[in-house]
Amino acid sequence: LVNEAAFAFGQGLATTAGIDTALKLGLNFRHGPHEMLEALGIAAITNTLERCGQIHPSGRYDACPALTSFAQEKSTQS
Prior knowledge:
Blueprint lengths: L1 H9 L5 H11 L6 H8 L1 H14 L11 H6 L6
């Protein structure tokens, strides 16, 4: 979920705050993907993606190029 959110962020579709809000209000998630990334850390996310990619080598779990930028984004919106 964090990786997919990073794709949307990287394509300029939404801010991190917008993505978090959409998933919390629209899908009733307790935490948005950016909040999950902040809580878990980028290393945990990329390690999980690598492990999933080894099990399913289709490319579905390749880390998004914007994942690092997504992790570093500090939104000014509340």
